[in-house]
């Protein structure tokens, strides 16, 4: 099963992708995580991407598409049952490149799941987000605190990090980029009957349950094929 999680910054794409990865043996491919790894390693791509990401703008399509192609290539022939794209595509040219890539490999795309969240809630979610410095487990100051204060639930590490693009000014730019460049993908995927809509304002477990309903083939609160 191959999926796309679509939604604005802070909608919960990464949170839900990690849960789906475990439950369905899918492989999460997050272009944001890939770019941050390039930045950390100081590669040519990382050097080009860092300033763009810090401004909250989108990294050029050509860089993203070639990076993604290598990942999809790597996902074929592995033991995973498919992939979840988290943060890709983000522009119509990226979606067209993905269609061509999947057609060349005869790989289907099963669902495009949109997590709908109000802009005001997104700012609160992003400004409260932090991750374990060792294993990358995600937390939130209000919505998902570690069970023991200052201790990662997964690996016991006491060190946490916050993303440099999670500040109010950059979040505004990221939201603007989403509405201008990524939202046009909603009619694109509605037109080919793949779009399913989930209420991303609900609590995390409820969002997960809505996604599971979509994956089970029951349309429940999701959108019927062909509907926006
Ligand atoms: P990227 O890393 O993809 O960031 P993003 O899309 O802005 O999304 P986020 O990771 O911020 O949010 P999320 O939806 O994953 O939410 P999360 O689950 O963490 O991209 C970063 C940058 O890289 C871009 O700005 C761009 O420059 C570049 N880039 C990446 N891909 C690109 C592409 N394809 N083309 C061009 N440029 C690209 O949740 C957020 C917080 O909310 C967490 O703390 C979580 O605990 C909490 N939370 C989650 N769900 C809920 C819930 N239901 N209720 C309450 N809290 C919740």
Automatic annotation (TrEMBL):
Keyword entries, A-Z: ATP-binding, Cytoplasm, Kinase, Metal-binding, Nucleotide biosynthesis, Nucleotide-binding, Transferase, Zinc
Enzyme superclass (EC): transferase
Localisation per UniProt entry: Cytoplasm
One GO CC term on file: cytoplasm
InterPro entries documented for this protein: Adenyl_kin_sub, Adenylat/UMP-CMP_kin, Adenylat_kinase_CS, Adenylate_kinase_lid-dom, P-loop_NTPase
Domain Adenylate kinase active site lid: 129-165
Pathway participation: Purine metabolism; AMP biosynthesis via salvage pathway; AMP from ADP: step 1/1
Positions bound to AMP: 31, 36, 57-59, 87-90, 94, 163, 174
Entry-linked CDD domains: ADK
Any single biological process term in GO: AMP salvage
Region span, NMP: 30-59
Catalyses which reaction(s): AMP + ATP = 2 ADP
Positions of ATP binding: 10-15, 129, 202
GO MF annotation terms: AMP kinase activity; ATP binding; zinc ion binding
Function in brief: Catalyzes the reversible transfer of the terminal phosphate group between ATP and AMP. Plays an important role in cellular energy homeostasis and in adenine nucleotide metabolism.
Domains (record comment): Consists of three domains, a large central CORE domain and two small peripheral domains, NMPbind and LID, which undergo movements during catalysis. The LID domain closes over the site of phosphoryl transfer upon ATP binding. Assembling and dissambling the active center during each catalytic cycle provides an effective means to prevent ATP hydrolysis. Some bacteria have evolved a zinc-coordinating structure that stabilizes the LID domain.
Assembly notes: Monomer.
Identification of the protein by name: Adenylate kinase
């Amino acid at each position: 099963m191959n999926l796309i999680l679509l939604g604005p910054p802070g909608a919960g794409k990464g949170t839900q992708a990690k849960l789906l990865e475990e439950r369905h043996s899918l492989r999460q491919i997050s272009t944001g995580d890939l770019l941050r790894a390039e930045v950390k390693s100081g590669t040519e791509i990382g050097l080009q991407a860092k300033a763009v990401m810090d401004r909250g703008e989108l990294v050029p399509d050509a860089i993203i598409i070639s990076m993604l192609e290598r990942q999809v290539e790597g996902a074929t022939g592995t033991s995973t049952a498919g992939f979840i794209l988290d943060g890709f595509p983000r522009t119509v040219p990226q979606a067209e490149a993905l269609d061509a890539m999947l057609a060349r490999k005869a790989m289907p795309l099963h669902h495009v799941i949109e997590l709908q969240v109000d802009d005001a809630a997104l700012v609160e979610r992003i400004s409260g987000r932090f991750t374990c410095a060792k294993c990358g487990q995600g937390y939130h100051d209000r919505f998902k605190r570690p069970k023991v204060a200052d201790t990662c639930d997964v690996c016991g590490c006491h060190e946490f990090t916050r993303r440099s693009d999670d500040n109010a000014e950059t979040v505004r730019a990221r939201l603007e980029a989403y509405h201008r460049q990524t939202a046009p993908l909603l009619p694109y995927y509605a037109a080919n009957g793949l779009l399913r809509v989930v209420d991303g304002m609900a609590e995390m477990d409820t969002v997960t349950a809505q996604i599971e309903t979509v994956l089970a083939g029951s349309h429940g609160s999701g959108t019927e094929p062909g509907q926006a």
